[in-house]
Amino acid sequence: MAADLPIEIIQSFLSYLDVETYHSARQTCFSWRSAASVASMLRDVLQQVPVSLPHCTKSLSPKDWNDYFGQVARLNLLGSRSSVEKIVAERKLPHDSSSTTVLAFSSDGRKVVGLKGAQTVVHARESGECLLQFSLASSLYPHWTSVCRALMETRNAGYMPINQRYAKHRIAASSDCSFIAVGLGRVVQVYNLHEHDENGTIATPAEYVLGQTDMVFASSPGDEYEDTDGVVESLEFTDDDTLLRVAIGKETTIHRPTRVRYLGQPSQSPEIPNLAYWRKNLNHVYVDSASLAVTLTGDDEYRSTFRGLRLLPPSFHIHSQHAAQHPIPRSTPSEPAREKGLDRCFVASLQTGHTDSYCIGQITSPPATLPQSVRIHRLFPSIYFRPSDLVPGARTEGPPRLYPPAPSSERSPQSMTYNLCDSVSRWNPINLPSATFSSPLLAASDDRRLLIVYEPGAGHSCCIVDGGSLYVFSMQACTAVYQPAQEPLSPSPSSPSSSPDSHESGSEDSGIGPETIYDRLRMTSANPFNDDRYDPPDIIPCWPFLLDRTSMDLESLHVVRSDAPPSHGGSEGRWYTVTGQSGSEMIQWQFTSG
């Protein structure tokens, strides 16, 4: 049996494996784990990974090498790509709804809200029973003058649409469907389904108009900030229904074409939010991605933008991989106290003059009269921003077809299980996200370990096509076992002082060279890491992987920790379910992570 082979033969087999297969083989049995846990073997296989490595094996103890390999495996999600189960099914809709009906589902899964013209209908999701029906407030709709203008500007006599900036309703339901938010054009309204007036009708909603309603900012937005002239693209309740996330599109300001704004004031919310809370705080701008971008830009020549910004839960805290990294600067005795201000982390696509990358950042804000500060904690690798161009692996010729066909006319769910290790190169830059799109969808898992990103239109040869690409990132953090800052940089290859005898371990260190990927990243010209607005680069870059390329556009994206799928019943480890909605169809991906 393979378990009874001499350790030398097992190691000869291991030396031919890629790092993902090596990681799996290391977990098979004691003899294979022992053979794969030798320091020199670990160092050799880690050279396949874009990660910082010591200049020689003796720099770390055998235990440290094993711990370091474990950190690399965890932060790069090794083992997650071997078995991905995907299900494409018809989404269960109310009986009188279609794929074009504007719908919102409560996060508890019990209710669904639909719009039919100016009527809002609330259904029980399982039974389909109509629970409530009411009319939307007339102030949601544009004034008749706007409609007339749109009609007069139409040159085709047989085609008379309302201006597209006011054409689409948007809707969101709170966690238990106590509140719904409705958007049309620039108008946002919040209704409380449990509050009625003396006539038994739904109470007048709280209302907010983009670019017109007087706003109160959580902190000063900066001199270069411009208010939005865009329209509502999506709505979502967050933070226990105390914040309303508003995605804004069709902007023509300097922040064009999109931005994200969070409305509300969680610190002023009662234990259970009510309509009075929203009437008072719907004009309170908790976070505005354009304002954050202005703050980050500062006096730079280039303009920074944040796309698809999403706040992380207050319980999420950053943790540097660098042992000596100083904490994010706090207030000093000469500065005003910040304890009453905002201190939150976020994920977004950061686009600047030299960087296009998904990031984790932190907002630290004093009271509203003083400016906020923004610091970028982590930049994830992307096509246009990665630790090194010298990444091992052959180029993938053309995108692999990963998605199953659309559901059949019988609406029967279709599923498939695929191994990404066989079809998509793990460390090939072509399979990284680009982070250049104006409206990516971002979703963080409920345990704050994973980030899922959907880039519409990505991965296709033609830009006029439905669908896009999904990527999985690890947001986990740890203090890296290996600390490059504690090891002096070695001379460059052309340095006269370098010689064949300059390495202790001889041939085992050939290939890593006199500098590591970490060193090259720090010395790259026009990089942001000499800037105190950015934390030092990760010692172990969290390299994302391509999960799938879809043939349909996703309208929403969620990821939660879940049980193993039936086909993997009894499997150990963390399983995650990613759910995307596309019209009348629902797509789910399930995979394990450690």
UniProtKB/TrEMBL annotation:
Location of the F-box domain: 1-45
Pfam family, one: F-box-like
Chain intervals for the UniProt region annotation (Disordered): 395-416, 485-515
InterPro entries named in the record: F-box-like_dom_sf (IPR036047), F-box_dom (IPR001810)
Name assigned to this protein: F-box domain-containing protein
